[in-house]
Structures are given as structure tokens and as C-alpha cells.
Design goal:
Elements (H helix, E strand, L loop, with lengths): L1 H14 L16 E3 L5 E3 H8 L5 E3 L6 E3 L4 E2 L1 H10 L6 H4 L16 E7 L9 E4 L6 E4 L4 E6 L5 E7 L10 E6 L4 E6 L4 E6 L4 E5 L6 E6 L5 E5 L4 E8 L4 E9 L5 E6 L6 E7 L8 E7 L5 E6 H7 L6 E6 L5 E5 L4 E6 L8 E4 L6 E6 L5 E5 L4 E6 L1
Antiparallel strand pairs: 1-2, 1-5, 3-4, 6-29, 7-8, 8-9, 9-10, 11-12, 12-13, 13-14, 15-16, 16-17, 17-18, 19-20, 20-21, 21-22, 23-24, 24-25, 25-26, 27-28, 28-29
GO biological process, one term: proteasome-mediated ubiquitin-dependent protein catabolic process
Enzyme class: transferase
GO molecular function, one term: ubiquitin protein ligase activity
Length: 388
């Protein structure tokens, strides 16, 4: 009973604004907003604390001052509200805890080797990518400098990308990838652009043409970028000479997708996998669908939450996707707080949980050159690196 009470209390704390004690909602005055210090308030309280001028406010918890323009949407809470749906189910059941962790134990040999970041170092991280040549990791998050670069040993090598109005400033990063020629490429939801930097943080290119809301991205071995546009329902291939800062071509390669976000490219076959976020129908919660395309962009497999539910006894809501070096599709599931292997495109989908313990809200996924699995956990604002 004590454990249940603790869980209820955690849920209360998570879903309520700690100033007005109203439950957060997806829109209006109840929408959760991050302050630069990392604390979260509803939009109404941000406005009230900012006073009639709405210029400056002081965090009620740590007293750090900031401007209203420095606040931003709290993506993990908004995604959690999306999973819970309008009926407002409980957090434990939405995250699959009530079944005692439905995903089975992780296969022998995949162990947590390193954990980086944490609250204060990273703020609501949204994307992670690995440089296959140098072993460096790039993480996009909502802190003061939006991109952190970590070395293979876990030390933070570089921070760059401040919020501002200069051409290469980053307002709200949604995802990040690293090209084989060593450039960090970011989707910026704040001004609906794609921005590229070198590892020192120098901006080399900003592409703004024609995107509605660029979201997920991944680099091919040839340093092309495959990119989703969530609002346009499209997939783009972007070709550029990043060293010279010149865009060569930005071509739509697929349309009529439904809110595509996460995307990954197989480094061996060139296959592309996309996660669509389907809108709720009737009383049903919203769900996700995984679509796999060949290198020629022919649809070769798809599976939605309902179909996966026939194989797996719990609702699955995927947020991130990657290919391992054998070409298998790997996804994160925020309902069971797990990382799951769905198999190769030709055997899709099998169901093999890779990590089923120790994650709270996995939103990002990548593999390093030595095949370590990197999971971005926005629940505790950390990067977790697993190896066999």
C-alpha cells in the first residue's frame, strides 16, 4: 500500500503544476512550460509570475530570474499527456508498470556501461546521435546551449547553439544526427529549419526553405540527410557540401505520411524506417506506426500499435528508431519503458526486448561504431550506453 501511495504521489507531482496544483493539459493555460533552470510550470502561472509586462519572472522554486521568451514547451510531459489521452489514464498504467514490467528480462550480455548527463546537465533532451568515426556523441536538449558533445569516455567536449535570432542560433532542437564527414545537423522546431555545425560549434549551413515542421533526421553513409516533416507528412533527402556550407539539393522522397517523426537509415542496405504518430480515434488513445521503406523508397513493411499488440500483451508507443549493424530495426517504447528489436525488414516484425529495466522515458536511440547501444532517457535527462 505504501508503494502504491508513493506511486500515486509521484503521479500527482508529475502531472500537476506545483504552483497552482492544476493538472497539466495539452493546450491553453495548462500547457506545461520549461523555465531555463529546468523547473516546469503551466503557461498560466508563467504569465501570472511575469506580471502585466510579462517580461521577467522569477522561478518560484530556485529564484532564478528569466524572461518569458526563454520558456519553452516541456516535450516529455506533453508526450506523456498524449499517451494518457483525453480520458487521463494513470501514469503507472500508461507506462506499463502495473503489469510488473511486461517486457521480459534483457538478453544476456547487454549491460549498462555508462550513464551521462542527468538533471541540470541536460534539460528535457530530445535527440542523440553518434559519430561513427570519432565515437563522439551529440545530444540535443533544451538547456542554455542546445547541443552537447560528449567524448567516448563520457567527458563533455563541447557545448554550443544558444537560443537567439542569429542565423545559426538554435531555438528549439527536435533531433540531431552526425554525418560521416563530422558535421552535427539539427532540426530546429523554433524556426522550422535544418542547421548544420562542425564539431567546434561553428554554424556552416541553415536550410529553411519549404519546411512546415522538420522533426527527425538521420545521415546516410554518404553524408546525405534523410529528414521527416511532421506537419507536411513528408520525407526529404537533403544533399549538401557541409564543408563549403552549400546546399545542393532538397528533394521530397515520400509524401502522405501521418505525422512522421523518428527516422533511421540502414548503413548497410540503405533501407529507411519512419515512425508515424496516428491521431486518436474515438475513445482510443493515439498510437504509433512503424513503416519500413527500401533504399528505392518502396514500402516493404509496416506495423502499428494494434498489430504489435497482437504479438505483445501491452500497448506500444514508439518514439525513437535505429538500425543495428546487422540491419535489424530497434525501437524505444515509452509504455513499457523498454527498447525492443523488431527484426530485419524481411522478417518484420519479430519481438525481442533488448532492455526492459532501468529506463523511465526513452526518447532517443543510436548505435556507436563499436555497436554499443545508446539510449536517450528524458525521464531522468540522461544518456545510457549499453554494450555486450
Amino acid at each position: 500500500a505504501a508503494a502504491a501511495a508513493e506511486e500515486d504521489e509521484a503521479e500527482l507531482n508529475l502531472l500537476e503544476c506545483r504552483v497552482c496544483f492544476e493538472r497539466y493539459g495539452p493546450g491553453g493555460q495548462r500547457r506545461p512550460r520549461n523555465l531555463p533552470c529546468g523547473h516546469v510550470l503551466c503557461r498560466g502561472c508563467v504569465g501570472a509570475l511575469g506580471g502585466s509586462e510579462r517580461r521577467r519572472l522569477e522561478c518560484p522554486f530556485c529564484r532564478r530570474a528569466c524572461g518569458s521568451a526563454e520558456t519553452s514547451d516541456c516535450l516529455p510531459l506533453l508526450q506523456l499527456l498524449e499517451v494518457l489521452g483525453p480520458a487521463g489514464g494513470s501514469v503507472p498504467s500508461a507506462l506499463g508498470r502495473s503489469g510488473g514490467g511486461a517486457a521480459g528480462p534483457a538478453p544476456a550480455g547487454l549491460g549498462l556501461r555508462l550513464s551521462l548527463g542527468g538533471w541540470g546537465s541536460l534539460v528535457n533532451p530530445t535527440g542523440v546521435a553518434a559519430c561513427r568515426r570519432s565515437g563522439r556523441l551529440a545530444v540535443a536538449h533544451d538547456g542554455k546551449k542546445k547541443i552537447h558533445v560528449f567524448g567516448p569516455s563520457g567527458s563533455c567536449l563541447q557545448r554550443f547553439g544558444e537560443r537567439g535570432d542569429a542565423g545559426n542560433d538554435i531555438k528549439y532542437p527536435l533531433d540531431v544526427t552526425v554525418t560521416s564527414d563530422g558535421h552535427v545537423v539539427v532540426t530546429d522546431g523554433g524556426d522550422r529549419s535544418v542547421k548544420a555545425f562542425d564539431f567546434e560549434g561553428r554554424g556552416v549551413l541553415a536550410v529553411r526553405e519549404g519546411f512546415c515542421l522538420p522533426w527527425g533526421l538521420d545521415a546516410t553513409p554518404e553524408s546525405e540527410i534523410i529528414l521527416t516533416d511532421s506537419e507536411a507528412g513528408a520525407l526529404y533527402r537533403l544533399t549538401a557540401d557541409f564543408r563549403k556550407g552549400k546546399l545542393k539539393k532538397c528533394q521530397m522522397i515520400r509524401s502522405q505520411l501521418i505525422s512522421p517523426r523518428g527516422v533511421a537509415v540502414s548503413q548497410t542496405s540503405g533501407a529507411v524506417v519512419v515512425i508515424e504518430h496516428l491521431k486518436a480515434q474515438g475513445l482510443n488513445n493515439s498510437s504509433t506506426r512503424v513503416k519500413i521503406f527500401s533504399a528505392e523508397m518502396d514500402l516493404i513493411g509496416q506495423m502499428d500499435s494494434f498489430g504489435l499488440n497482437l504479438i505483445f500483451p501491452s500497448k506500444i508507443y514508439t518514439t525513437a528508431v535505429a538500425f543495428d549493424k546487422e540491419g535489424r530495426v530497434i525501437v524505444t517504447d515509452i509504455c513499457s519503458q523498454a527498447v525492443i528489436c523488431l527484426g530485419k525488414p524481411e522478417e518484420f516484425p519479430i519481438f525481442n526486448p533488448l532492455i526492459s529495466h532501468g529506463l523511465s522515458y526513452p526518447v532517443g536511440l543510436t548505435y556507436t561504431a563499436n555497436n554499443s547501444l545508446v539510449v536517450l532517457d528524458s525521464g531522468d535527462h540522461s544518456i545510457k550506453i549499453y554494450s555486450s
